[in-house]
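#structure-requests
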Amino acid sequence: MNHVLRSAFTVLSLLCVSIFTIAPKLAHSYSSLPNSQQKDVAMPQHAAGTFEVKVAPLEPAFKFDDNPLGRMSLDKTFQGDLEATSKGEMLTAGNPAKGSGGYVALERVSGSLHGRTGTFVLQHTGTMSHGEFQLSVTVVPDSGTGQLAGLFGSMTIQITDGKHSYDFAYSLPDSH
């Protein structure tokens, strides 16, 4: 791996382990929706389970010797209340020596959520600044298809002893 990819992979590894381990729990609140949307949406639900992820470096679109940008592919398999696979891409940047970095990612999830099938897109935004971590994983609005059309929510991710798990707070329009 060249220097840029090695640096990007180091930042990604540091971010994934650090951010996902102690990220604050996120939940989407039904009451935060505009009143016009509340009548069409069921009360928030939760899905939980585990997932496996494969991350592989990709050639970045732009190369810089200072402050390198990294690009990675994501390939996940979810088990539990969400039975699905996903594919996506991640962009990374940062300074691992100072314990700082950030990443953004989009992944298309395809499968079944509590028995309802379809696809949706998750958007990740994570930062680490001198030991302070922030992570947001949310459903891209209007990205749901099939029986998951109208899906919205947020997901928290934890890594414990090298194992990945998720808690997904979500809502779907009433099915009647």
